Amino acid sequence: MGETVITARGLTKSFKGFKAVDGLDLTIERGMIYGFLGPNGSGKTTAMRMLTGLLTPSAGTAEVLGMSVPKDAEALKYHIGYMTQTFSLYGDLTVMENLKFMAEIYGLPRASQKGRISELLERYELTELAERFAGRMSGGQRQRLALAAAVLHEPKLLFLDEPTSAVDPESRRHFWEQLFDLCDAGTSIVVSTHFMDEAERCHRIAIMEAGQKRADGSPQQLMDAMGASVVELEGPTLREIRRRLPHVEGIVTAAQLGARLRVLVNKSIADPVAFLTSRSETEGATLIEQVRPNLEDVFVTSTGEGRQ
Ligand SMILES: Nc1ncnc2c1ncn2[C@@H]1O[C@H](COP(=O)(O)OP(=O)(O)OP(=O)(O)O)[C@@H](O)[C@H]1O
């Protein structure tokens, strides 16, 4: 096993008796992009805020970069970067002023500030925008500025809370390339998302639901270990089949995707295609074939909708 950057045991946060994060165990290794995948309210932000030392856990322990949080939060802040869900820089300061301000906050030596800021302006395509007020920038530009600010002090560990929720797919792809560059240069990254395609890019993910971790592993491991087979059906009567199937024992879920019905069949059924073909509920189907699982299937089988 590699060096560990985060270890959490039983991490819990209650707000007036409501457990936003409930007994979270985590082991995150260095050099990894680790994703929290979960719907709104599943506890991703709360977990991150505890791991950055900003929020005191109600129970459990966490060690981040060898420091105990929240006790060592002050020292930890110089070694981590945190990009929050909402833009946290100053709209009425320019790009340059924002970065200079952050450089002061992080205590970057004056002599190296200028060089580091120009390097980041260049890397994140902000040089031309240096005098623009941050409040006047597009979603994608703001996101690049927020990332530049979060890595100004060359943190060893970077937390990104739903970083691409407000940007278009092209900017999102570009942003992920930048994350892989950072990762390649030795930065470990923890990122939260509710996008499946984004989670699929992570080296490892935790699937979160109602404050608890439902699954943990690489996307491939999770797909391989899934407790269901995936079968797709075609035919003119898909909506009827869709209505009938959920009542059949052994069917986990059925959902239409374009011209196909995607059906998750419990792994206990050895030949899912033969099983579905023999059922009267699939009458009218012109094609029944097994396909490869994707992360959304894993998500469905490990969260409330599909858990047995
Ligand atoms: N300060 C707080 N006081 C009370 N309840 C809170 C507080 N912070 C979070 N919660 C609740 O805890 C739950 C988890 O919230 P959290 O923001 O961690 O989820 P999330 O997965 O990050 O979702 P989102 O994407 O919406 O931020 C939610 O039900 C939320 O309303």
TrEMBL record:
Belongs to the ABC transporter superfamily. GO terms for molecular function: ATP binding. It comes from the Bacteria. Signal peptide: none annotated. This is ABC transporter ATP-binding protein. Keywords: ATP-binding, Nucleotide-binding. Residues 6-235 form the ABC transporter domain. It holds the Pfam family ABC_tran. The keyword ATP-binding applies. SUPFAM superfamilies: P-loop containing nucleoside triphosphate hydrolases.
